[in-house]
């Protein structure tokens, strides 16, 4: 696992963007695994800016997102489908038919998505304060495929900021790629910033590989690059 401590959020976003750009320029029909949450927003802004200024094209790129709330309308402003359209897809030349965000709440919905997610070249990840990746909460087996998950109180509290600061408005379940799905990606690019991620990053990078910190599984992946700011790195021993 390569860990790069960056000056600040803009710096880490830009470094992460450069990795994506290199991938897409080298292989125009790349498959990107994408994440929501606030962490990758700066990287998405850099992708949009670069597309507009330098013409980097995403027309042959396919994307598969990690997760979506259960029971939310796709057009809801807080759905991850809306998030991706607003924060990335509408700003680049990607073919909407090549973008995929999971949806549904049945075993069949999960199996269908699991079968569709194939050949991901780079998987972008954020990390939850409790070490979750995608919506794989602590205790999730490492070989789990796409599944429906009950969100923890901690995750719902962290996401209440998007729901008028009212935890009761935060959905209680999500559909998420499993850790087994995520680990199949050829390369993993994790971005995180802020002191509230410092414990999770310490457990992910320096802790035992343990299902209590889902992100610790990344220690077993052969090609992981982590871009974090100084605050997020503040609890690392070196
Ligand atoms: O980037 P944020 O907003 O801190 O979120 C971190 C993680 O939490 C989630 O948004 C889910 O709660 C993940 O999708 C994301 O990786």
Detailed description of the structure:
With 238 residues, the chain is α/β, with parallel strands linked by helices. It has one domain: Rossmann fold, CATH 3.40.50. The protein is built from 7 helices and 10 strands. The protein has helices at 9-26, 41-54, 80-87, 107-116, 153-159, 179-183, 198-206, and strands at residues 2-6, 31-34, 62-65, 67-69, 99-100, 122-125, 147-150, 173-176, 187-192, 224-229. It has a 7-stranded parallel β-sheet, with helices on one face. The chain has a 3-stranded antiparallel β-sheet with strand order 4-8-7. Strand 2 (31-34), helix 2 and strand 3 form a beta-alpha-beta unit. Helix 1 crosses helix 2. The longest helix is centred in the first third of the chain and has 18 residues, at 9-26. The model has no long low-confidence stretch (mean pLDDT 97). The site of 6-O-phosphono-beta-D-fructofuranose has 12 residues, from helix 5.
Topology at a glance:
Blueprint: E1 2-6, H1 9-26, E2 31-34, H2 41-54, E3 62-65, E4 67-69, H3 80-87, E5 99-100, H4 107-116, E6 122-125, E7 147-150, H5 153-159, E8 173-176, H6 179-183, E9 187-192, H7 198-206, E10 224-229
Parallel strand pairs: 1-10, 2-3, 2-6, 3-5, 6-9, 9-10
Antiparallel strand pairs: 4-8, 7-8
This protein binds 6-O-phosphono-beta-D-fructofuranose.
Low-confidence stretches: none
Task: Kindly provide the radius of gyration, computed on alpha-carbon positions and rounded to a whole number of angstroms.
Answer: 17 Å
Q: Say how many strands there are.
A: 10
Instruction: Identify the CATH architecture.
Output: 3-Layer(aba) Sandwich
Structural category: alpha/beta
Please give the order of strands in the largest beta sheet.
1-10-9-6-2-3-5
Distance between the termini: 14 Å
The number of domains is: 1
Ligand inventory: 6-O-phosphono-beta-D-fructofuranose
The main sheet comes to:
7 strands, parallel
Task: Give me the CATH fold name.
Answer: Rossmann fold
Mean pLDDT: 97
Number of helices: 7
CATH class: Alpha Beta
Q: What is the string of SSEs from the N terminus onward? A: EHEHEEHEHEEHEHEHE
* Helical residues, percent: 25-40%
Form type: globular
Q: How big a fraction of the residues is strand?
A: 15-25%
